[in-house]
Automatic annotation (TrEMBL):
Bilayer-spanning residue ranges: 6-28
Protein family according to the UniProt entry: Belongs to the ATPase B chain family.
Keyword vocabulary terms for this entry: ATP synthesis, Cell membrane, CF(0), Coiled coil, Hydrogen ion transport, Ion transport, Membrane, Transmembrane, Transmembrane helix, Transport
Pfam families xref list: ATP-synt_B (PF00430)
Biological classification of the source: Bacteria, Pseudomonadati, Pseudomonadota, Alphaproteobacteria, Acetobacterales
Compartments it resides in: Cell membrane; Endomembrane system
Annotated membrane topology: Single-pass membrane protein
Organism: Acetobacter conturbans
Record's keyword annotation contains Transport: yes
Name of the protein in its database record: ATP synthase subunit b
Length: 246
């Protein structure tokens, strides 16, 4: 049989109660407060970490979208660059073809122009040569008969008569009468009288000679020239030959 010392047990219970009260008041409450504070701090950190994770995830999603966008933009830039390069190649080829066609046409026109100029030059030379030969033949024959001169002077009279009134009036003041060969005094007076009859007055006539006329006459003023000579006829023939080819 166990003997219980109730006083000792009671005293110990009292001590235990005091110890529990002391522990509860001075240990468990601060410890609980500390633990609660640590728990709250851990919870805040966990919340902050979760928020950070959300931000990181959002940034990752945004970065992924940005990369996708960049990839799309890069593909679009490459596509546009390829299209522009292709268009540039087509434009360059087109310009090259146009330049080649223009050069070919310019060359053709140049060759045609040079051929025409060459033909014209040769034709002019041939006409001039033919006229020169005729002039030399006429000069060498020494033909100077009265009938030839009268015929040429009659043509000069017709040319003067056909002049407008204003120009015939100018001749009344005087002019140079050129002859291929200096006529005799009697012939001079005859020619002057015939011209005076056309002009209605006796003008002042200055005689001169020019062998290049071959045969014939020319009325000359500072603003007028009327000729009836073999030289004028040959020049007219040469002009007709030249114009007939053009």
């Amino acid at each position: 049989m166990v003997n219980i010392d109730w006083w000792t047990l009671g005293f110990q219970l009292v001590n235990l109660g005091i110890l529990i009260w002391l522990l509860g008041r001075f240990f468990w409450r601060p410890l609980s407060a500390i633990i609660a504070g640590r728990q709250n701090d851990v919870a805040r950190r966990l919340d902050a970490l979760a928020e950070k994770e959300k931000q990181v995830e959002a940034e990752r999603v945004a970065l992924s979208a940005a990369r996708t966008g960049i990839a799309g933009e890069r593909a679009e830039v490459l596509r546009k660059a390829d299209v522009e390069a292709q268009a540039g190649r087509v434009a360059t080829l087109s310009r090259a073809q146009q330049d080649a066609a223009a050069l070919q046409e310019a060359t053709r026109q140049t060759l045609a122009r040079e051929e025409t100029e060459t033909r014209t030059a040769w034709g002019d030379q041939a006409a001039s040569l033919a006229v020169d030969i005729a002039r030399q033949i006429l000069s060498a024959t020494g033909i100077s008969s009265e009938a030839v001169r009268d015929t040429l002077f009659a043509r000069l009279e017709q040319a003067v008569t056909a002049l407008p009134l204003r120009e015939r009036t100018q001749l009344q003041a005087g002019f140079i009468l050129m002859a291929a060969v200096a006529p005799e005094d009697a012939d001079r007076r005859k020619y002057e009288t015939r011209l005076a009859g056309i002009l209605g007055t006796q003008p002042v006539i200055t005689w001169t000679t020019d062998p290049t006329l071959i045969e014939g006459f020319a009325v000359i003023t500072p603003s007028l020239s009327v000729a009836s000579s073999w030289k004028a006829d040959l020049d007219h023939i040469r002009d007709n030959l030249t114009h007939a080819r053009s």
